[in-house]
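Homework-ish question, so no full write-ups if that breaks the rules, but can someone show me the predicted structure for this set?
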Amino acid sequence: MDEARPLWATPLQFVFACISYAVGLGNVWRFPYLCQMYGGGSFLVPYLIMLTVEGMPLLYLELAVGQRMRQGSIGAWRTINPYLSGVGVASVVVSFFLSMYYNVINAWAFWYLFHSFQDPLPWSMCPLNGNRTGYDEECEKASSTQYFWYRKTLNISPSIQESGAVQWEPALCLILAWLLVYLCILRGTESTGKVVYFTALLPYCVLIIYLVRGLTLHGATNGLAYMFTPKMEQLANPKAWINAATQIFFSLGLGFGSLIAFASYNEPSNNCQKHAVIVSIINSSTSIFASVVTFSIYGFKATFNYESCLNKVILLLTNSFDLEDGFLTVSNLEEVKSYLASAYPSKYSEVFPQIKNCSLESELETAVQGTGLAFIVYTEAIKNMEVSQLWSVLYFFMLLMLGIGSMLGNTAAILTPLTDSKVISSYLPKEAISGLVCLVSCAIGLVFTVEAGNYWFDIFNDYAATLPLLLIVLVEAAAVCYLYGLRRFESDLKAMTGHALNWYWKAMWGGVSPLLIISLFVFYLSDYIITGTLQYQAWDASQGQLVTKDYPPYALAIIGLLVASSTMCIPLGALGTFIVRHLKQGDTASVA
Amino acid sequence: MVSSLYCMRKMRERCRQTDRHTPTPVWPQLEPSGPIFTPCLFTLPSVLLLFQYTWDTNEEYLFKAMVAFSMRRVPNREATEISHVLLCNVTQRVSFWFVVTDPSRNHTLPAVEVQSAIRMNRNRINNAFFLNDQTLEFLRIPATLAPPTDPSVPVWIIIFGVMFCIIIVATMLLILSGIRQHRRKNKGPSEMEDTEDKWENTVKIENGIPCDPLDMKGGHVNDAFVTEDERLTPL
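A: Not a homework solution, just the prediction itself:
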């Protein structure tokens, strides 16, 4: 008996699902970095332009396709054109890679969350060395937060070749993360629809609390001023525009098939144009909002470090020259230094190498992105706040909500085509299919918990999704406009929703957005080709910092395999359909 | 060499409140050893770095008493007296040299012995002056850092266990209720068919004649057309 397709209980659930999927960790840890690197306030110009020209049209396209075809990505693209079933398969493969490595971030968030219930926070102090005369050597060279991340959380090996064993602590957290994801997707839209209320709304609550706290921190205004002072010359830098386009593209999660899956559970008469505009605007506003919070925290951390540095210099001089305590202050430091240099030149030259040049700008300029920002820089700022356990718990809870929200979309992209397929769903119920997918992803994800796991994580993060997605979305846009026909699609949408298609969307889908994607694609390819060998950052325990190393040949082979396995699905799918049709035609011809 | 400006500032505030004269910090210097037996040129084993709002002879006496106390706890040195501890070169920053002589006052005790004695009683000495390792420093005596308290079961495992159990229980509940719903759905259509048949039977019985000769609810095949179907040859 054919069951009616499950639907979202209310359109609000659909909007929340899209928001919780699109608003993810990239909004928190990538956008502030880009803002800082490419001119602060002036980065908003290319960002907003790309949003209207690239983000909104492509988002609307995916939602419209999903709502019209009412199937997951494989079925939807097969319906548009039988030769395009490979596009759907490519989306599923990329989503599978993404879900494998993305949940490891949730595992790390769990790890930090569980460790936040201690006093003092474990990353605020260095552990002692063997004979208790001082601190651990690696911790001394790096900082306590870096040590906690690289040694206690990851237990990272010096290079990718030395794999090491599976670390049981992150492995346990990974299993827990997958269990939580399974719990949320177990019943399909019924359970997902309720969970997205939390995953969409709770991060905003935490961000607002952090905004209020962040703005009242000492030194927050330094960070905000630094971020928002526009550096107009960056507008002429093509990299700023490319990065803005890339950020919009990946932040909205286009091409994974998740948006198609979510939209397929909509009522056909749903106004997806309105929802597309709402979701993309909310996603970008959240990025800007999160970067305000991040920069006030940056400013606090930079000011704190700057003032500690100054205090250390004052102490050193007071000790060396037997000055009265309180004589040296921040305001007269420079004059006293010059006086001492002239009055006691020999002694001053002894002490001089130890005097550090403290600069607020250099503290602010340490731009970090990715896991480094989330787990090292933020924890360093949190450990200096009052009631640091509370702030730590709130922060990692927010990271967890953001991560789980994105995972719901990823798994929906994989599960919707599987449950749509009559072959599989006749043998197994929905719960069993979800369970199998989670089990397989978890088992493979244990690779990221070995000692070299973070290096493999970086490989997946940098290469598994970037190029294939650009290709997938390009083919999608071209297919809808030229293979299926823009007029046909327009009449479909009008029949479905009752609204006519605005000329703006037609112009963007037909011309501008595909051109943008082609230029991004060309840029990335040329970038990879020009740089030659790919390199990665490895943690050197003896120096307490990151060093650059080359990837070994087998890692390069795996990178190639990752990119090829998803992109090759598109031509292979077309070829497969062609062969099957040819064979069928041959059969019917022979019978007649 | 760490001194705490913060601590100093706090003490100065206290000083202002109690209306004492502004303190002049004193800081001991480590001078190279000398063989001459003069009070100020001993081989000085350690140096005291001290921040305090006043440093007078009474405080010096207390310090000597604490050092003597530490030495007396060393076996073989129980006879150390306060007069055996000598201070010299007291500077404005509250720093000075000190040595401990043996009872005959002929030579000083080896530095290592004094260092280990002070190290063992560091806590008592700190507390006597209401200071800590950051504000009262002995050069060349590394502080024995207190290890962070490690609970027997790491806290994170407890919280992990709690979350794990909650999630497993919730998952089991959802799966079981899903299975129950599935079973109810499977039973449901067969029950519905039984009631429909009964209803049709009662209709027929009640009136003696069928109420609705064209009753197609049960999907019954009309017997009148069966033979015709049989006559038709299949394609």
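Now go work out the reasoning yourself. Hint: The longest helix of chain A spans residues 272-321.
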